Amino acid sequence: MRTGAIVTNTLTNLLIIVLALMGASIFVGLAGLFALARSIRRLHIPPDADFFTTLRSVPLALVVLLDLLDFGLDIFSAPIMWIALDRMGLPNLRNKATIEALIPFTNVIPTFTVCWFATRLFNLGDQPWLATYDRWGRASPRIEPRRGEQTIIDGDRR
Question: The pTM is what?
């Protein structure tokens, strides 16, 4: 009888800790997404960018917040991620996040954080600074400075 009570008490404490962690991750994830929304919308990501190019363009904080939200809500985070990433203008990331959120019990794996680091470690996707944009958000060809010509960066050299 005594060991049964100890096991029940241990499982109850473990459940309370897990639920508290999930609640905290939901709060931090939602608050962080609201805080980052404006700065993410200002990023210039080409509409035809693939998943890894999009991951190269977004900050680490966004993918960590998406993983926290996924941890806290599991499959119920899919509609929230869909709406949030759609409003931020990240359709390619939105699709993958929703699919990953719909797979049950993958919430303990920080999928997007691992992908963010793998993108940089293995040099996947296009570099976000290779394209320049005009004030209307249209991509324009990159203009390389001619050899021998000083650029703004080289202006301090004499």
Answer: 0.73
| Residues spanned by the domain of 32 | 26-139
CA-closest candidate to residue 128, choices 68, 18, 42 = 42
- The domain total for the chain is 1
Q: Is residue 37 part of a domain?
A: yes
pLDDT in tens, 30-64: 899 899 888 888 888 877 788 888 898 899 999 99
In a domain, 153, yes or no: no
Query: For residue 158, is pLDDT > 60?
Result: no
